[in-house]
Amino acid sequence: MSDRLFGTTGVRKVYGEEISLDMALELGKALGTYLKKGNVLLARDARTTGAMVADAFSAGLLSTGINVHRAGVIPTPTLAFLTRHLRMDTGVMITASHNPPEYTGIKFWKSDSMGYTQDMETELEEIYQSHDFNSVGWDDLGEETSLDSPEWIHIQEIVKRTNVDAIRQRDFRVVVDPGNGAACVFTPYLMREIGCRVTSINGQLDGHFPGRESEPDEDTLGDLIKMVKSSGADLGIAHDGDADRVVFVTEQGDVIRGDRTIALLAREFLQRKKGGVVVTTVDSSKVLDETVKASGGQTIRTPVGDIQVAVKMKEKDALLGGEACGVFIHPDFHLAPEPFLTSCRILEMMASRGKAFGELISEIPVYPLKKTKLKCPDAKKRVVMGRLAETLPDEMDDVTDVLTVDGLGISLRDGWVLVRPSGTEPVIRITCEAQSEERAQSILEDAKEVVQKAIDEVRE
Predict the structure, then answer these.
(1) Right CATH number for 169-255 from 3.90.780.10, 3.40.50.2300, 3.40.120.10, 3.40.50.300?
(2) What is the pLDDT of residues 115-147, one digit of tens each?
(3) Class in CATH terms, 369-457
């Protein structure tokens, strides 16, 4: 297990092995000690451990005199949005996002709806490790209350920002696959509110994720693809466990990578605003940079993680930000991932252009991209990455640049490869892109061999 409690975003561990109710209790005490006073909004996703972990975390907060407002099972973006909208001091989401069902975790959101920065997480972890917690007497304990249907506040605010009349005139048919996760109610209701005919699959809350794996991608969305094609739907919408991601499926059944969808939206926004900044992560396709540049904008890349994107967006006053995995951030609304407004804006574009989603997205080129991951204990990651920094550039052909923004990024004459340690799993991830399938596969195999050798050579 890693010495560091926090990963890429918040805490995410296997329940019963790496994280326990005692840890959740003490993290609650640590947050209460950090805040000193105030109000915390607390919600969870559908995981089987969620209620217990939320109860333990709430008890820790209450013991320090912090008031806790329970929002039940809602999507992470709703928790983040409501933290700002309801003027809470902090929002806390009990979730492991897209990880398998045995994982649980805790994510923290600031009062402005942006996630806790790495510096804030470090300070929180130091308090947790010190066990020097605030403690109040029985008559100064925090109070716990429950919110009634908080998701409707979020839905109504999205509808206000959507051209509902244009969408209703098109009578779109949409298939929603929330993957038995936190958006089971939210997305179907929102789509109906804006005038779409909706079919849901995997639409029952179930923390075992029986319908499919929680992470939505081409390998897990077979049922959604079939349903979109067989029903003649205009759009497929898929989420992960806590619904901070959204992946779209065209009317022909094609699963679209998030970076291409960011490029499509960015082109629209940049043309409307006559330029601006778009922020994405190091693992997005070069097609995004090319599209943004052609539309008069600038692309800035950050380490992987929606918090990293949001921080840079705030700093640069960006128009749009996101990640290839299906994260989209709209700063004109709030600074957390916002899959629901993204879905509405895609439908708006389809309505205003009079084009199918497949036709719109075909205007954005697609370059072959390959991914894999290799098992690597957390304790070995730092040494392995240090060794790779010395060996990998020498083992790859036609290297033009080496970047260390997040992991090890190597630009090649005809493609690129990114090797980075996961912040949420004991693996090292390899991503590469090239202008042909054959070249992308060749880059992947070359990099995989070098990375596996480095892992094998480093002792724990």
Answers:
(1) 3.40.120.10
(2) 999 899 999 999 999 999 999 999 999 999 999
(3) alpha beta
| Other Cβ atoms closer than 10 A to 34 | 20
CA torsion, points 152, 155, 161, 162, in degrees to nearest 10?
A: -130
* Cβ–Cβ under 8 Å, residues 101 and 4: no
Instruction: List the beta strands (DSSP E) in 303-391.
Output: 320-323, 327-329, 369-375
Sequence-distant (≥ 6) Cβ neighbours of residue 326 within 8 angstroms: 216, 240, 245, 246, 247, 258, 261, 339
Which residues on neighbouring strands pair with residue 371, listed in sequence order? 431
The residue to which tokens 């398998």 are assigned: 100
Q: How far apart are CA 335 and CA 321, in angstroms?
A: 9
Residue-level pLDDT at 403: 85
Q: 125, 111, 117: which is closest to 31 by C-alpha?
A: 125
The SS3 of residue 451 is helix
Q: Is 361 in contact with 256 (CB distance < 8 Å)?
A: yes
Q: Considering only CA atoms, which of 90, 85, 29, 98 is closest in space to residue 57? A: 29
Spatial separation of the C-alpha atoms in residues 12 and 45, rounded to whole Å: 13
Is the pLDDT at 1 greater than 70? The verdict is no
Residue carrying structure tokens 């994280």: 19
Show me where the domains of the chain are located.
11-149, 169-255, 258-335, 369-457
CB count in 10 Å sphere of residue 314: 16
Quick check: 57 and 92 in contact, CB under 8 A? yes
Enter the pTM of the model. Answer: 0.90
Distance CA 430, CA 432 (A): 7
Q: Which CATH architecture has domain 258-335?
A: 3-Layer(aba) Sandwich (3.40)
**Triad 139, 145, 150: Cα angle to 5°:** 160
**Sign of the CA dihedral running 451, 453, 458, 460:** positive
Contact at 8 Å (CB) between 45 and 181? yes
Q: Are 12 and 97 in contact (CB under 8 A)?
A: yes
Q: How confident is the model at residue 3 (pLDDT cuts 50, 70, 90)?
A: low
Residues with a catalytic annotation lie at 97
357's enclosing H/E stretch is helix 357-361
Report DSSP state, residue 324. T
| Torsional sign, CA 98, 99, 100, 103 | negative
Q: Hey, is 148 helix, strand or coil?
A: coil
Question: What token pair was written down for 361?
Answer: 């997205």
Helices (H) and strands (E) in the chain, counts: 15, 20
